[in-house]
Amino acid sequence: MTQTTTPDTLIFMVAGYTVILGGLALYGLSLIARFRRLARQEKWMDELENEERSRNPEQVH
Amino acid sequence: MLRERESATRLALTGVAALLLLAALGMVFGYAPREAVMGEVQRIFYFHVSSAWVGMLSFVVAAVTGGLYLSRRERYWDLVQVASVEIGMVFGLIAILSGSIWARPVWNTWWTWDPRLVTTSVMVLVYAAYLLLRQGVEEPERRARFGAVYAIVGVITVPITFLSIRFLRTIHPVVIGSGDASALGGFAMTPKMLETFLFSLLTFTVLYATLLVYRVRLALRADALEARRSALLAGY
Amino acid sequence: MVETDRARARPAGPGNYFRSVGVIVWKDLAAELRSKELLGAMLVFALLVLLVFNFALELDLPLRQAVAPGVLWVTFAFAGTLGLNRSLALERERGCWEGLLLAPVDRSAIYLGKALGSFLFMAIMEALVLPIYSALYNVNLFQPGLLLVVLLGSIGYVSLGTLLAAMAIQARTRDVLLPILLFPVVLPVLISAVNASAGFLSGAPMDQIWPWLNLLIACDVIFVAVAYMAFEYVVEE
Predict the structure, then answer these.
(1) pLDDT, position B109
(2) Strands, E, within chain C: which ranges?
(3) Is B30 at the interface with chain C, CB within 8 A?
């Protein structure tokens, strides 16, 4: 039996690619968010270390 | 400075990955022909299989870094392992979900007990178990050792699971929705499809490498921060 | 150096190695025979699983016989987890763990001892479950083929289980972690065991069962080897 028409499965393809690209994007965004958070924490650490250094100027770090 | 050069390399890699992804999308939608029996949904195949491939590649990388950690005891390998597991899990889930969406119109079911689909699910479960194992161990050195051992155990058992399921399916082919032991992916591949497929594989491999590089960088920086925190506390 | 101390304390050699293994097995066995905590828990748990399955799957007789191998192995898998966990946890609770590690024995001997001990406990549990099972599911489970499968399946299960249990008990989430770690990786053993069991129970010809037996034996060999080698990395202190 030969098929004369190809079924319309466009919506599933769209759903599939939404999942694939969406999933990748979500992970990428989570990485960006984690990097930003890290940068903030590094800045706090810089401030804390400067505070520590100014409080104890005679101690050599 | 070395750091600047590393940062530049990372950016270059990201650029290459992005270009490849765009090109691959172009090929999938513009170059590859529409499959006659399934219609448009077949186009999922290219990125679906590539995702599964990356999931498996990450699995192997996790095991290899596990072996490297156990023999060298360098923290770096542990960090790469966690990164690979995390990324592998993401790609594995993407593969399963996209496979399920593909199966729905073709086999009229959301799930088939196709050996490859089941094995990918088992692999994702092993990934999840790995992460739960690490979560439950507090000491970093022990956490790294356990993770390494489990990753190695996983990489040995999962292929054997695949073989057992495949053998099972060859003697019990009748299962919901599919009549063929090689259920998912039953279509004839034309040369253009093959080219698109191979290019997608390449793209996803580069994508994996890019994400891995960044994820490892994140871990290294977090480690450095932790060291600074300990040093600061020690000063008090 | 610790190595030379060990060498001086006990002469190296296979005789001594197997004696260490035997001591560990006997210690667990003797302790269990006295208290019967472990076996009691395993047996009751196995019966409860059986009961739950019976009510969860309200089946007529022929269907019940068809699912018998699957239900049997699920029972063994769950009850086996209990045995593995408790066997290693009791050690830790009684404070024997550090003593065991300080003793001048090869770490792999500890592995073999623990694995063998768990295997014996599992075998005893199975010996008690099988007749009850035969009655409830109206199947004769005392066929030599099936018993062989139970034996081989238990070996594969316990070999990986001991390694993973040693990790699990060192974690905070120790009770729930072992099944989570074990089940995904012990699947080949379960798949082969269920199919081989089903083959024997349905009287299938041997050439249909052999592939599953071969797979089961191969898994046993691989899993024992891997766990044997990996154990020392898991119990470093």
Answers:
(1) 87
(2) none
(3) no
Q: Look at B94 and A23 and tell me if their CB atoms are within 8 Å.
A: yes
CA distance B8 to B137: 36
Interface contact flag, B47 A49, Cβ < 8 Å: no
Q: Residues C188-225: pLDDT tens digits?
A: 999 999 999 999 988 889 988 999 999 999 999 999 99
Q: Say whether residue B41 is in contact with chain A using an 8 A CB cutoff.
A: yes
- pTM for this entry: 0.89
Q: Is B165 on the interface with C (CB under 8 A)?
A: yes
- Taking an 8 Å cut-off on Cβ atoms, the answer to whether C226 and B153 are in contact is yes
B173 or C36: which leads in pLDDT: C36
Of C170, C195, C233, the CB nearest to B137: C170
Residue in A7, A28, A41 nearest the CB of B105: A7
Restricting to A residues 1-60, those with a Cβ less than 8 Å away from any Cβ of B are 3, 6-10, 12-13, 15-17, 19-20, 23-24, 27-28, 31, 34-35, 38, 41-42, 45, 48-49, 52, 56, 59
Domain count, chain C: 1
For range B36-63, the mean pLDDT: 92
pLDDT at B176 over 50: no
- Return the closest-CA partner of residue A49 out of B236, B222, B217: B236
Give residue C64's domain range.
2-234
Q: Which residue has the tokens 């037996």?
A: C213
Q: Do chains A and B touch (3 or more CB pairs under 8 A)?
A: yes
Residue A51's pLDDT is 87
Closest by CA to C126, choosing from C100, C108, C152, is: C152
pLDDT of residue C7: 46
| Whole-number pLDDT of residue C203 | 86
Predicted local distance difference test score (pLDDT) of residue C64: 79
Of C184, C186, C230, the CB nearest to B149: C230
* Burial bucket for residue C128 (CB in 10 Å: 0-12, 13-18, 19+): middle
Q: Which of C205, C118, C203 has the alpha carbon at shortest distance from C155?
A: C118
